[in-house]
Design goal:
By secondary structure, this protein is α/β, with parallel strands linked by helices. It has one domain (6-252): Domain of unknown function DUF4159 (Rossmann fold, 3-Layer(aba) Sandwich). Helix content is 32%, strand content 14%. It has helices at residues 6-19, 70-82, 120-131, 143-157, 219-224, 233-252, and strands spanning 46-49, 93-96, 107-111, 135-141, 164-165, 195-200, 209-215. Helix 1 packs across helix 6 (233-252) and helix 3 (120-131) packs across helix 4 (143-157). The chain is globular.
Length: 253
Amino acid sequence: MRRTPAAALLLVVLVLPLAAGGQGSFRRPSRQAVATVDYNSHFAFTRIRYGASLARGFYGGGGWEHDYPTADKNFSAILDYISNTRVRLDGTNILDLDDPRIFENPFIYMSEPGHWTTNDGEAKNLRAFLLKGGFILFDDFEGEYEWRNMVAQVKRALPDHSFIPLDVSHPIFHSFFDIRNLNIPHPMMPTITPGFLGLFEQNDPSRRMMALANWNNDIGDYWEWSAEGLYGSDPTNDAYRLGVNYVVYAMTH
């Protein structure tokens, strides 16, 4: 992986409107035809769908599709440009947790886990995925109620594991970019304090991180609106730096 100056990342953010021209592969899928790309060993941004039978949200979800497809597409373009990772730019994945194809994608993303519910089959598959080396990022959720819900669902998969607060010294914040502070505000609620918490093998923070919770934050929203400059260049770039670091850590640990 190559380290690229921060200015280059800003340049990519500024030219994203040009990259956004061909969006044919990123149209919203129907509930019956959820978007996926064929596996070819390249990194494909993989978003987890949940609650498909609850008739909520765009495709029957409870917020899992928030910022889709623009955030997924923009982040894929950044990761492809800024690193040597081979990235699928022709499409992304939406998968259920009980889909065996999650094992083809070592990094998976879930939006709004504060409203997530899971079942025994999904919990069993998530447990196997994480223990075999997979990594899940939880993003875009706020407050104690949503935190407790996310933890309760994770404990269905890993009942003996607990989230541990992280500080900027953890290797995940230095896996590609050298992040010096975690003062990255929630894009729409800048007065709340963001939290970064990890779930580790054997509950040991010196071992591999299996899950990371971006609590009281929403880096996906930064990704979605980066081309428009809605939230300003500095926090938007920071949100991309976090995402790149998360993927590099997940792919190398």
